[in-house]
Amino acid sequence: MSEPLGDPVSESVSETVSETVSGTPPTIGIARTSELAGRVLDEVDRAVVGKREALTLVLAGVLAGGHVLMEDFPGLGKTLAARSFAQALGLDFKRAQFTPDLLPGDITGSFIFDQRTGDFEFRAGPLFTGLLLADEINRTPPKTQAALLEAMQEKQVTVEGRTFQLPRPFHVLATANPVEYEGTYPLPEAQLDRFLMRVSFGYPSLDEEWQILANRMARQQEEQVLDAVVTPAELLAMQAAIEATVVDESVGRYCVALTAATRTHGDVLMGASPRGALGLLLCARAYAVVDGRDYVTPEDVKAVAHAVLAHRITVKPELWMSNVSGAGVVASILRTVDTPSAREATPGSGPGSGPGSAPGSGAGFRPGGERHTP
């Protein structure tokens, strides 16, 4: 079940039921954004051991302004990662446990009759938070799953004809278990497409698993509390800094080529839409900044391609019993689609020439991530 509904909320301020970051977020540059992103990952690393690459992908999805689906076997740290990111990013955190009897109103909130005032008052649901953990999202019926669609896309919810704005920033980290399909409701393609990325954590190595045990004994308690590295306003500023990062046309066309290749692959019934190409671009840009660069290379696109594209691909029904999967299709097109090569660029153009970039920092790229200046 979800957490209890909140307190009655007045409708006197533009139907806004949750406090948002007020004013204009502070302006920070790419270098500062990269530094803060590294510190966030270091802090989350204290709780989630040995999953730096997966955590980097999740953070890139958040910095790109999207929502992330974490799909893996039980007990691999998905819920812990969501809670840890909420703490490190300084966001309000709420968890909704998705069950077969969960109703849409349990997520969005509902109007409750107040006998003292003789009127209906809106009680906000767990959606009204900075970071929502939608735990085991595939165990609730499609009607409740669909309650998330408007919130994820429009950053608002509509209840009984009244629209309420969600706080900013607002992100959904959802979990799903790819086992025990009995009694589950697979997410429809329309809702899967709303998740910018789907990330898997995988099992830890033997040394990493021992480190998990050692950390638990050292802190002598179950709960692990992390320090807030940034504030919600600073997170918005980091997202704005990434928006100012320019991507070279050849890299953008590479994103388009990869996405288009999913539609013509012989094993695919339905490939990724243009939203997939846009997701590649946005995530590659955020991934590059997290990696400490103000320009994007094809290697950044390749690093996020599986997480962005695999869940948007539907393989042909006759291949469902085989080993063919969306991830396999993405691996195939990464091998076959030509990778753009580095080129000379004129000063003041190309990636990195946007606001906050160092002079000459965006002169081009070399595959592999080396900076290339004229």
Can you offer a commentary on this structure?
This is MoxR-like ATPase. Belongs to the MoxR family. InterPro entries: ATPase_AAA-3 (IPR011703), CbbQ/NirQ/NorQ/GpvN (IPR050764), ChlI/MoxR_AAA_lid (IPR041628), P-loop_NTPase (IPR027417). GO terms for molecular function: ATP binding; ATP hydrolysis activity. The chain has two domains: 204 residues, Rossmann fold (3-Layer(aba) Sandwich); 94 residues, Orthogonal Bundle (Helicase, Ruva Protein, domain 3). Helices cover 38% and strands 14% of the residues. The protein has 13 helices and 14 strands. The strands form five sheets. Strands 3-6-9-2-10 form a five-stranded parallel β-sheet. Strands 1-5-4 form a three-stranded antiparallel β-sheet. Strand 4 and strand 5 form a beta hairpin. Helix 1 packs across helix 3, helix 1 crosses helix 9 and helix 2 packs across helix 11.
Report the average pLDDT across residues. 84
N to C succession of SSEs = EHHEHEHEEEHHEEEHEHHHEHHEHEE
Main beta sheet strand tally, sense and closure: 5 strands, parallel
Number of strands: 14
Secondary-structure content class:
alpha/beta
Highest-level CATH class of the largest domain: Alpha Beta
Number of domains: 2
The CATH architecture term of the largest domain is: 3-Layer(aba) Sandwich
Count of alpha and pi helical runs: 13
Q: Roughly what percent helix?
A: 25-40%
- Supply Rg: 21 Å
Q: What is the overall silhouette? A: globular
Give the SSE layout.
Layout: E1 8-9, H1 30-45, H2 52-63, E2 68-71, H3 78-88, E3 93-97, H4 104-108, E4 109-114, E5 119-124, E6 131-135, H5 142-145, H6 147-154, E7 156-159, E8 162-165, E9 171-176, H7 189-192, E10 197-199, H8 206-219, H9 232-243, H10 249-264, E11 268-270, H11 274-290, H12 298-309, E12 314-315, H13 326-336, E13 365-366, E14 370-371
Helix pairs in contact: 1-2, 1-3, 1-9, 2-11, 10-11, 11-12, 12-13
